[in-house]
Design brief:
six-stranded mixed beta sheet, disordered C terminus
């Protein structure tokens, strides 16, 4: 005789424990993974062909900018006088190395004042080199040496 089976009801499989196991495995793999260390590249930089004593000791015009003053060529100027001085220099007609102006900016200078000086230099065709001042209200050291290549570099003092 045949025994009749009752049709079984379809039930969803409980996956809560699978999620727990998956998270435990993820944590395990993260903790046991060894990350590859970048080895780096050894680069040989060629030495200068010119001796230090032969390099030109050019002085570039320096703009010392503080919260209260703007000094250019050892004179205290207003923004308008500075723009006039730049126009008289005729920077656009000069070679690239003669168009470099170094801006020494104190940390307490507000952005509007800094922006006016930088745009005045750019409008007259100057190439800007920046020097960060470590001391509040003081210019940052000497302005001799070669300018940064490309004219948009930044030198730390």
């Amino acid at each position: 005789m045949r025994i009749a089976r009752k049709p079984r009801e379809f039930r969803d499989v409980d996956v809560t424990s699978f999620a727990d196991v998956a998270f435990l495995l993820i944590i395990f793999f993260i903790l046991t993974t060894t990350f590859s260390k970048s080895m780096g590249v050894s680069v040989m930089i060629p030495a200068s062909t010119q001796e230090e004593s032969q390099k030109p000791e050019e002085e570039y015009p320096t703009v010392a900018l503080t919260a209260e003053t703007l000094q250019f060529k050892e004179e205290t100027l207003t923004i308008e006088e500075f723009r006039e001085a730049l126009k008289q220099m005729k920077l656009r007609e000069r070679s690239e190395s003669e168009r470099v102006l170094i801006v020494e900016c104190a940390p307490d200078v507000d952005y509007d004042r800094y922006y006016k000086v930088v745009t005045a230099i750019a409008r007259e065709g100057g190439i800007l080199a920046l020097v960060e001042s470590a001391e509040s209200g003081e210019g940052g050291g000497g302005a001799s040496g070669s300018p940064p290549s490309g004219g948009g570099g930044k030198e730390g003092s």
